[in-house]
Amino acid sequence: MALQTKQIFVNIPVKNLEASMEFFQNVGFSFEQRFTDENAACMVLGNGMYVMLLHEAFFQTFTNKSVVDTNTGAEAILAISADSKEQVNEIVQKALDAGGLPSNEPMDGGFMYGWSFQDIDGHLWEVMYTDEDAV
Length: 135
What we know:
Mean pLDDT: 96
Helix content: 10-25%
Low-confidence stretches: none
Order of helices and strands: EHEEEHEHEEEE
Oligomer: single chain
């Protein structure tokens, strides 16, 4: 039997926790207050899916590796789903309006559509819609 997990917590370092929380609230995400304090904020992506925004100094306590300089490197691309092409555009536009930067131009592959942005800490986010009926 293949391993299946009920939850995922992706941890990313942020320079200013309050500013990052405000950014993601402007995009439309909420936070689980039970797991949020001065060092970390638990952003809810969906049922069982979370991104932990960790102040860089706190993040560093979990690893002996250096934190990636997102101005010159990428550690991951965080891909999230949307319910439609319009919602992809809406999410990315909210991110750009909230101070995020463009990452790539929109990609339209017919049954798949995506657009990406960089958050205020330079982390890469891909927002994707897939028309599963057309696959």
